[in-house]
Model the fold of this input.
Amino acid sequence: MTTIISISNLCKTYENGYQALKRVNLDIREGEILALLGPNGAGKTTLISVICGLVSPTSGTVSVAGFDIIKDYRQTRRRIGLVPQELTLAAFDKVWDTLCFSRGLFGKKADNAYLEQLLKDLSLWDKRNGELRTLSGGMKRRVLIAKALSHQPKILFLDEPTAGVDVELRKDMWRIVNRLRDSGVTIILTTHYIEEAEQIADRVGVINNGELLLVDDKANLMQELGRKQMIIELKEPLKEIPESMASYALELSDDGHELIFTYDTQGKSTGITALLQAMHSAGISMKDLNTTQSSLQDIFVNLVQAQP
Amino acid sequence: MNLQAVKVIYKYEMLRTWHTLFQSIASPVLSTALYFIVFGSAIGSRIQSVDGVTYGLFIVPGLMMLSILTQSVSNASFGIFFPKFTGTVYEVMSAPVSFFEILLGYVGAAATKSLIIGTIILITASFFVDLRIDHPIWMALFLILTCVSFSLLGFIIGLWANNFEKLQIVPLLIITPLVFLGGTFYSVSMLPPLWQTITLFNPVLYLVSGFRWSFFEVSDVNVGISLGVILLFLGICSGIVWWMFKTGYRLKQ
Done:
């Protein structure tokens, strides 16, 4: 797959000395949906802002479709649509007018048919003559999406698109995002809702304290997710795992009271029955049984907490 | 060049004017009429002609300048300050537009509005006095240069201001006194010698003087110097704007 955005050694230190990005390297593939996960203040918005031209990088380079974001800013920016986090709209503008404004700003000639379809897709057509201040929060979010798509960008940035958005709009939004992806648009979204990343993204990047900790295919992460642990509490403590059970992925707790069995739920067989039989043959009796499943949340929390 | 963007910014700013059309037109018409009633008819009737021109006629160029200067500054400053204040400026900043194009859109619209206001005042004045314009081309040149350079100044103030107080303080505390003390309602020769010298440091004097010359060939300073000063002022404002854009001053972190 070709790379559409290439970020290398990107650093950003704000005037107050705050280091928002620390040598970020990331290649975004054409046509994918990439979710950037991270807590508040992790640097997600700064990263997007640099690519879109709202924040100047301190060092490092970013190229979009092979063009440098500073030298060839016209080339890079016309390919990008940005839906900002805040509901920043001019209160007295009308929906239709603000869309025409956005399209023109990106150098595109008026195309009423396209804008009409866009508004219909976003359930905004009825509101086209309404002033933005009269719209609800969810409707304003839709208008921001429409504005970002008004110039038919090849890359769409959605900065916390579902913050404060109801279920209905969230569903609509994912429908639109999927359709955009099908039409070849690359989508980068930031979120701190893990389920969201899980649901929609092809790849997930975890960012914290200005560092990109991990970027991986969701499928790989899901495999991690598929791993489950069974904790067997024993009646009598064991000194060591009996040899007859050595072939199982077992760990013994320090005090010898617990056996921890890690298995793959996605696999053909989990091995639980055989293990329990083996325990029975070895004369080990158990007091209690527990299973735990790691989630993207755990992976995420572990990654974020492991940082100094 | 992204002309489409210049067009939409210009159109957007002009639309803002049409939304407040009544206020935009009524206020200069009303204030001009009031000035004519007070200075032209009431007090003016007791004032002898100034440099051979009746007082009512004499104040026409000054009155136009008064409105154009204040309107250019307030309109252009508000035009860029407001999107900055509400955050909607993000869109312009992330669009494939150069700073020059942004400037062309915003300052062009503000200058156009000032031109319209200037023309309205001129028309209003024609109802009160017998207008006389000896050098219409010079008049138009001074008018356009003033509209553009003070709209640029307004744009600078709008970029610089990070709150509403700052947005209003410059027009209120600097522009208005300069305009009133720049010979809007009098000829500098009417002042005592010391004040004449002090007034020479007021840039507005040169604008009013040159503008007045284009009407009646009456001026406090040579018309060439007037033109030079306004071009210098335009150059300085352009330089400041260029620096602000280059450094991303108050627009880009």
